[in-house]
Every structure is written in structure tokens, then in C-alpha cells.
Amino acid sequence: MKPKVLIGVTGGIAAYKTADIVSQLVKAHVDVRVVMTEAATRFIAPLTFAALSQQKVLTTTFPDNSSGEKDVIYPHLYPATEADAFVVAPATADSLAKLAHGFGDDIVCCSALSLKPDCKRIFCPAMNVQMWEQSIVRENSRKLLEMGWHQIGPEKGWLACGTHGYGRMSSPSAIVQIILHSIF
């Protein structure tokens, strides 16, 4: 049986890199599902992830219809309860705060609350250098690490906003290698 990875995409410019992560995981014979915050859909379309994963992409905790499919009726539970690994990429300052404090007000954070205890949890920070350097953002990252999450990045480099420093999401290849190592 293929390992199952749930990718949570949040609203940052690095969301475009997550498409490559999904593509590489699918090529590695991983069953990939994607959930996206509403903000993430402003940076990249759900259709991109649906095409790459060959799976429906969930963007809301409220069902559009009552088709009887469990991910339509209970999108906050499925596919999260079936995931072997959950990866938030990019993990924005906002999503780190919500995850660290147990908020469930979007499909990504609600999915995080529904994971099995043995599910691998990974977050890939990506944000402006000034945001990354805020003590509250660092505190939220530390809290997630203390709760058993694994952090990949951020890396130092040029950022989309034109600044230079830490805040750049790690390369998709590096992220994929860590995900694959955690599930195989």
C-alpha cells in the first residue's frame, strides 16, 4: 500500500514551490492529497494541485454538497485521519501561530487537529525576513518542535519582497527527501 501524505498549503508566495513537492512525491509513488487555505488559493490555483496529485483538493471545512463521500461530508477529518505524514508548505507566520496554539479555523489547521498520533508532522517556514525574526514567530516554531513537529528551513537568500535573509522556503527536492525518509 502506498504511503499517504497530506500537504497543507498556506498563503505565501512560496506556494508555487509546493507544486513541485507534490509532483515529486507522486513520481515517488506516494498517495498525495492537498488541502489549501483560502489565502493559498490567491497564490496558486487548486486545479494545479488536483492535476498533479490526480486527487480532489480541499479548500474549506464546509461541504459544498452531501454526496456521501467522506471527504465531502467531513473534510476536516478526511484525508487527515488517514495520513502517514502531514506537511505544511509554505508555513506562514499566521499558520505557525494557529498550529502552535491549536486553532482550527481553516482546512489546513483543522486537518492538523485531526491527525493520528503517529502521523509525521512537518512544517516548512517561508516568510519575509523581518517576520521570521519576530520573537513570537520563533516562539511558535519552538512550540511546534516541542510538540513533535519537524522543521525544514527556512533558508537564507533573496526573498520575493526584495529583501535578503532567512525566510526563504527550502528547496522542493530537499523537502521531498526528508518526507520520503520519514515515511519509508
How would you concisely characterize the structure shown here?
This protein is of the alpha/beta class and 184 residues long. The protein has helices spanning 15-27, 46-53, 70-73, 93-100, 107-113, 129-132, 135-146, 172-183; strands at residues 4-9, 31-36, 85-91, 120-125, 150-151, 155-158, 164-168.
List the helices and strands and how they pair.
Elements: E1 4-9, H1 15-27, E2 31-36, H2 46-53, H3 70-73, E3 85-91, H4 93-100, H5 107-113, E4 120-125, H6 129-132, H7 135-146, E5 150-151, E6 155-158, E7 164-168, H8 172-183
Parallel strand pairs: 1-2, 1-3, 3-4, 4-5
Antiparallel strand pairs: 6-7
Helix pairs in contact: 1-2, 1-8, 4-7
Structure description:
- The protein is α/β, with parallel strands linked by helices and 184 residues long.
- It has a single domain (4-183), classed as Flavin prenyltransferase-like (Rossmann fold, 3-Layer(aba) Sandwich).
- Helix content is 37%, strand content 20%.
- It has helices spanning 15-27, 46-53, 70-73, 93-100, 107-113, 129-132, 135-146, 172-183; strands at 4-9, 31-36, 85-91, 120-125, 150-151, 155-158, 164-168.
- It has a five-stranded parallel sheet, sandwiched between helices. A two-stranded antiparallel ribbon has the order 6-7.
- The longest helix is centred in the first third of the chain and has 13 residues, at 15-27.
- The termini are close together.
- The model has no long low-confidence stretch (mean pLDDT 94).
Features:
five-stranded parallel β-sheet; Rossmann fold; 184 residues; two-stranded antiparallel sheet; alpha/beta
